[in-house]
Fold this protein.
Amino acid sequence: MPLGHQVVLRAKGGRVLAPTDGARRGLVGALLCVGRDKGIFGVGTADTHAHALLAGDKAQVGRFVHDAKLALSATLELDMGECRVTEVRDIWHAEQVLAYVHRQDAHHGVASDPCREATTLPDLLGLRWGQL
């Protein structure tokens, strides 16, 4: 049985999800809100897709995908497309994927989010009030 799941969410048409700091904070807040009771422990985005990490089972992940698409559509005024779900195999994999998710901007060569507003890193460090 997997430790958790990674969900990748995209907007239809390959649009940038959150081009401003406000939109980035809105994206993270929306995903944390719908994922709070579904085991969410990490979020990150840099451009056209967002990653969410959940410790929940497949049923919780399915509910999260449904709720996240609705929340992001409303928050970002985007038509959300299909999602991809992969298993997080073990604690080592969870550590690696969380670091990867928090460094999406560097991975994609995007320098638009130096404060990591589009990730849960500020929440985990206590730098953003009231999210995680």
